Amino acid sequence: MIGLIRGGNWGWDELLRRMPADRMDAAVRMHRAMNFTMIRNWVGSSNREEFYAACDAHGILVWNDFPNAWSMDPPDHEAFLSVARDTVLRYRIHPSVAVWCGANEGNPPAAVDEGMREAVESQVPGVLYQNNSAGGAVNGGGPYGWVEPEKYFDPSTFGSKDFGFHTEIGMPVVSTAASTRAMIGDDGPEWPIGGAWYHHDWSEHGNQASQNYKAAIETRLGTARDLDDFTRKAQFVNYENFRAMFEAWNANLWDNASGLMLWMSHPAWHSTVWQTYDYDFDVNGAYFGCRSACEPLHVQADPVKWQVIAVNHTRRALQGAKVTAETYDLSGRRIASTRETHVDVAPAASAPAFTAAPADDLPDLHLLRLTLTDDGGQVLSRNTYWRCRTPEALRALNQVQQTRLSASLAQAARDGDRRTATATVRNRGSMVAAMVRLSLLGEDGDRVLPTLYDDNYLWLLPGETRTVTLSWPASALPPGRPKLRADGYNTPPVTVRG
């Protein structure tokens, strides 16, 4: 059974085609960890066997484009179709290849279209041939720049005026301070934004309209003082928008939302736009916004009517689950009655729970925490919304009292050629800890990359403890005891040894 498709577009796998098997595996593994189910190989940009093998291994479907775009007419049809036939033959052994697409954002010329269709239907019968990445049974066309999160729930936002199977959507994404500095070396790009930023895709004239993204960040949290401040504030917008993209499709599941793919999910170099993680495989708010909204069992609320639903992307029915909604102020005090109800959710379906619209007497900034538990009380999904009456209301976090964290890192366990460990972080202060990020470090304090976290950018109530599982390649961590760093928006950082 194939449920709602969640995934992203790839262009080149690496700018200079330096993509050995271990790096390819890491990239595809990160898509699987985001709960993605498909990667689109845009205009056939990746022709490496390692790409398809990694998708096979990690259970990721491949939408494979032929090398054609915008209705281009190849000068030699037979030569083009000969390559198309050979391409299908070469990759048909891979069970991950689920779609062959004739052209990006356009209908191929009729003779070429028919030839590609025949190549697919004769050599891999049963596999779908879709002639246009943005027409017919699917649609595309962005948006490619930042929009208010609630706009994703309005079909008029999209060029097709519909949800459907949407093949391209995205926005700028500035990653962590460490990754941003790595664009040009330890000193990082200049601040304010200038030269090197523009070289690395920051554009105020392209589809990304990066100035709108920057304005959204600073409207919410104030003018950035420096690069560190800007990248820290950017994660709020990254997380909120990417979560909203996929939650909009969840909210309209099969009516008629059937798939959503990011433009783009994988960077070929250090970039400032259209990515879910950075070139060095460090993760950011976009990554965890995607991971949250795409989880197999999920609880969410739309930001317009605040209709709370439970979503089941698995093949098994969910029976007798409980949905709970709690509302808190920034001191962690519960400021509204707790709502709860029980739901049954069929496979690949959603079920309404209740509405949780904010009452007029609630603070301009407060937290809505949704929890989905099974009939035994085990948490299946947890989702925290920072609700603001105006975008500027989020600036209350700049005045809130600092809180304190404590953390611990258990001894790492072997799992084949990987290592896993459990991290625990606790809010020991009297205020909510906002967007707490965990980072695995080596003995020398350098980041251990790539590291997978089953949760991150946490909101912790006073006294609350959260446990997170970490996983990384054994080769990524030099000998010695690893360290764990925990750092929230309103907390001083704390670093502990494993």
UniProtKB/TrEMBL annotation:
Superkingdom to which the source organism belongs: Bacteria
Coiled coil: none
Domain Exo-beta-D-glucosaminidase Ig-fold, chain residue ranges per copy: 383-491
Pfam families: Ig_GlcNase
InterPro entries: Beta-gal/glucu_dom_sf, EBDG/EBM, GH, Ig-like_fold, Ig_GlcNase
Protein name: Exo-beta-D-glucosaminidase Ig-fold domain-containing protein
Molecular function GO labels: hydrolase activity, hydrolyzing O-glycosyl compounds
One GO BP: carbohydrate metabolic process
